[in-house]
Amino acid sequence: EAEVAQSPRYKITEKSQAVAFWCDPISGHATLYWYRQILGQGPELLVQFQDESVVDDSQLPKDRFSAERLKGVDSTLKIQPAELGDSAMYLCASSLGGIEYFGPGTRLTVT
Amino acid sequence: GQQLNQSPQSMFIQEGEDVSMNCTSSSIFNTWLWYKQDPGEGPVLLIALYKAGELTSNGRLTAQFGITRKDSFLNISASIPSDVGIYFCAGRSNSGNTPLVFGKGTRLSVIA
Fold this sequence. Notes:
Chain A contains no helices and 11 strands. Chain A is an all-beta fold. In chain A, strand 5 and strand 6 (about 55) form a beta hairpin.
């Protein structure tokens, strides 16, 4: 069964450092999402791509976060510089037919 | 923005008991989805609902799309230890691929 791949699974970084997360969606899924999930909360959208284009990045803190999906397949989410409040689970999802399928996530800890 | 109210926040039940949880919205949704998330993992889809009044089952799980289109319910029958986890409702108010809005989750604990 096809799955969304994410790496790394865990990342510990010091504040003010740069960090990057990678996502490979299910093959053929044109829509890709990055969500952030704080402990005890549901996922919240950061950015949505349709193929290589950004559809919605209204909740992305653009002063420090960036996301790209250059060839419309895999995607990278970057944080620079990381802050203590960025500690969270970063989830990637891809969708087909209105169903979002999630990857295993990257657990980020900023010290 | 849209918010989903999910209840209860947590539940402790005995193995074999049935479980009910629900989700309400301040606005109308066209799609309701229910996910389960294990610790350190991403959410896994359980059930998808597309029509008001729709009742859909997946094994011991049954979910319903409320008639008002502002709520949804998930029931788990005869709970087992592997049902432990966090259950999230998620809804979409428009068609297509607009992002889901998630509830805050119901944490289920099953006592053997």
